[in-house]
Amino acid sequence: MEQTYDESAPVPALAGLVRTVWIQRTGSQPYPQRDLPTGGVELHCPVGGVPRLIGPLTRAHLQVIPPRTTIVGVRFMPGAGTPMLGVPADELVDCAVELWGPAADALGSAVADAAGPQAALLAVQRYLAGRQLRPDPVVAEMVRRLMPWEPTGIAPLADELALSESQMRRRCLTATGVGPKTLQRTLRFQGYLALAQAGFGSGLSDLAAETGYADHAHLTRECVRLTGVTPRELLGDKADRCDCGHDHSASYRPFLAEWYARFVQAQSGRRVLTSVHGPDQA
């Protein structure tokens, strides 16, 4: 069996907290995997192993998954995963750590007792939904405003949230592990990947313009900075299309929904969608 990766939307109780859930199976050979910055943390629960947390990442995390391994995973929205799991975000930046304590025991048991991977994935989601914890509502609103389809500057956003810039930065660091501008940069790149997955535009320049980059060279620099490779290397020799063979639509649906609404609005007003993100700052 070759490596397989199947994404799906989370259960309704986790909507807005989780971007996607998945089941990954490796074949007879070890599988090299490049985990990318998403703005949030990921929970990896290998069948027969110890649950692990990945991120939040500011650069690619490389790992080799052993052969014949099955993993059920959860990708959280920025600021959502760490409150639900009781782990401070700033302690996880660019780290991959084994989960500990009652959460690890409960998740490990849920996966081990399940009849199969699908049942294990559902059990993990039921456990998370049962925690009934919610992220900081101010941070949730900040994340929404920092999405690539809600172009804003950091200072105006702080004013709109009735915070000073330093207060907003501290709140963002506590909840997501990174500062607002770093989070905005990561979400913008995720927007590029979402549009590439959807097959938008006729080239890298179209994708760069639509997601707020100055030009395709700017997008390429950010891609190398965040992933360690160029867009063409990342997406399988097609810099404007995802050619990995996996369907990531469940993960990118929140980005595409916001983009579509903005696109329709722009078309109705016959506006040209331009970059208003401004210069990059950490």
Automatic annotation (TrEMBL):
The protein in question is named: Helix-turn-helix domain-containing protein
* Species of provenance: Kribbella soli
Per the record's keyword annotation, is Cytoplasm included, yes or no? no
The record's keywords, sorted A to Z, are: DNA-binding, Transcription, Transcription regulation
* InterPro entries reported for this sequence: AraC_XylS_family_regulators, DUF6597, HTH_AraC
- SMART domains on file: HTH_ARAC
Question: Record keywords: RNA-binding included?
Answer: no
Where the record annotates domain HTH araC/xylS-type, the positions are 136-237
* GO MF annotations in UniProt: DNA-binding transcription factor activity; sequence-specific DNA binding
